[in-house]
Amino acid sequence: MVQPNEDPAESTVNKKLLLEEEAKKTEETGSSQDANSLPKDSKEEDSDTSNHKLQLEDLLDKVCGPGRFTCLLLVIGFINNICPGAVSLGHALFLYTPKFLCDVNATLAGLASPSNLHGNSNDCDLTVSEDQCSLTLSNCTASNLLGQFACTAWSFDSTHLAVTVVTRFMLVCDRAPLSRLPATLYFVGFLIGSTSYGLFSDKIGRRLALLIATLHLSLFAFVLAVVPTFPLLLAAEVLAGAGTAGVITVSCALLVELTPRRLRSQLLFNGSHGWCMGILTIGLAAWFMPDYRHQLAAAGCIGLLGAILSPFLGESPRWLLATDRHRQAGRALIRIAGLNRRSAPNVELLQGLTPPKTAATAESTGISQLFRRPGLRRLTLLNWAQFFSIAMCYYGVGLSIGSLGGSVVLSCILMALVEPPSRFLGGFLCTRFGRRPVLGVCFACIGAAIIACSLIIQQPGLAAVRTACAIFGTFWSCLAFTTVWLYANEAFPTPVRALGAGSGSTLARVGALLSTLVAMLDSYWPPAPFAVFGSVAMATLLVVYLLPETGGMVDLPATMDEGDRLGRLIGTGSGSGKAAKSREVVMKLPDDAQGVREAV
């Protein structure tokens, strides 16, 4: 009943407030009963783990915050990404097929050799086919020269590039399908290296694995430049791809684990500018050194520089603590604190920062660990799907840039120039809006740009428009690729973080590998490859909708149980606020830790 002197609107508000208070009390009572119903050991284990995570995250934030070590981490991450970017997207230049003409004189010299019957080709009428793959001789005085013959030598247009794999090994006409094989095998090696190096770094540590991977890649960049035969080139492509995957997988895991939570997305995006610099480096090298062998040698030299600098980062304290190496973790933290000119942490307290011994932390870190828990299994499959999609779109467009018309070298340089702005924008958007909304916008823009490109690919005189659409799609592909890497390294728990991200990178290489095969559809219908790439991007929007948000997490999952709980939140959270709320469910923070978390 409303009192005579009481405002009806005020009465309604008071009733709503009373109802909300009653609902809140009921919820708190239910939560208390649920907590009390848990076994004592379970509650103590959750409390220990939560306190461990809060203390460790606070310590890492204090020690690894902005300072000289952060600058060192950013510079070395930047350098380590140059060689992978140069070699991967450099295949658009290495395998470029310029315009060519049948070398009539060389072909006729072979026809009139002593192994044939004697005859004079000058006494014949000669016609070269439109595709420059064969020539026809008629009205010859020597009967053995009559007929159609395949061209055995060609002269190539050197306007854009003087020497490519195609021109060196004559991969045209009947041998044209072989020109796709080096890129395909490169991504086969990438596929192998992604999972193997991820597992490798989880076993022996990030520092040593990164050193081996950088040496591996730089060595085979030189090998690709000097191999004398095409079969040896194919073998070297597989090994170079494995090295590239190792550098990307391990360096990303190390950067995430050495970065404070508030700087993680910004540093990962900025560190990946090295990939853009790699593409720009290979484009400028092609501009001034139009021989692909010199371009690969330049990329290999930069890779050696990364191998020299990588050991200065030290080992990841997270990995050391996850593998019960407390003293080494203490020394690593003291070293970082010294570089950042901060007070050294108390090494004796690190024993208390080790996660409690549970079945989850005692298990091996094989690939099967990603599938033994429902939450991790779902998280892994969704992560694989988005890696597969973005790699197919990114590499499919990047490696097909030469088929759009115009200068392939200039197009490669423009692709490199649009990537840094996309990464700067990505760091801001991911921090402001979270990971899921950013990925949704990215895949929508990628699909729209690539489908638009497919609609005008057969229109004459629109080479500039096609290139603009491709570069616009590259802008969002680059942003999405880095966001996917960031998401994978945030979502998976520490014992399998590198393995989870590395296995996702493996599926990315499957997508990249298939993109080279899908590109062959252009011989049947020119718009087909771009139509496929655009459709895959649009379909990935459903995958993004099902992902849990990680942008508002207070800390990274440390145990397999925490990763499984996060995976069960499929399709929840949107933006940092809801992500933080979801994270409360994952962590199950006790009351005494709530104040610490709010202070953070």
TrEMBL record:
It comes from Macrostomum lignano. One of its GO terms (molecular function) is transmembrane transporter activity. One of its GO terms (cellular component) is membrane. Keywords: Membrane, Transmembrane, Transmembrane helix. This is Major facilitator superfamily (MFS) profile domain-containing protein. SUPFAM superfamilies: MFS general substrate transporter. The keyword Transmembrane applies. It is found in: Membrane. Residues 1-51 are annotated as: Disordered. It is a multi-pass membrane protein. Pfam families: Sugar_tr. Residues 136-552 form the Major facilitator superfamily (MFS) profile domain. It comes from the Eukaryota. The chain crosses the membrane at residues 183-201, 208-227, 233-256, 268-289, 295-313, 403-418, 438-457, 463-487, 527-547. Residues 17-28 have a biased composition (Basic and acidic residues).
